[in-house]
Amino acid sequence: MDAFNNEFDEKAKAWDDDPQHAKRAQSIAKAIREEIPLGPSLTAMEYGCGTGLLSFPLRDRFSKITLIDSSKGMLEVLKEKITRSGATNMEALNIDLLESPKSLSKSFSVIYSAMVLHHIADLDKIFSLWHSFLTTPGYLCVADLDSDDGLFHGHGFKGHNGFDRKALQKIAEKAGFVEVKFRTVSEINKTARDGVQRTFPLFLMTCKK
Length: 209
Description:
- It is a single chain.
- The protein is an alpha/beta fold.
- Helices cover 30% and strands 29% of the residues.
- It is built from five helices and seven strands.
- The longest helix has 17 residues, at 19-35.
């Protein structure tokens, strides 16, 4: 976990400089608005928020957004952005939910996450935690990569090489979620591990508690 945090601490200050990151977040935010009912009385949690690129396009749809991340570097950038924007309904917290679930004593109408799940080893545990932190009814939105045969990440990556949608649906349903749906929302163009320029599709999974 420390190595994971250090990696993103180092990337934090330049994270928003990559236009692909902002474009991807806008596409995911648009899909979330289209797929689930949002309203100004609802509360949200972004899991693995990074610099908040996904939450800023959604901030007018919630009364309060709690943004959590285990990377202190990312949160430093995020807090500066919240201050500059004058957003009063966004709160950034340094929490590792998997390690310290009791450090967050709140419930949320919506939980969303982007490009984080493939870094999490214990999928059953994180889906169960998300389910426990949602109100009833509540919605979960997870954006991540389709299965990629290990080509997306470099050598030494120890996370998931994307996901099979049907297999991920079974994990969500095992945790208690219903009405699981998927749609392709974006794509990432990059030089793959084999040195070839490739396009990797990105899905949004939505489900309900």
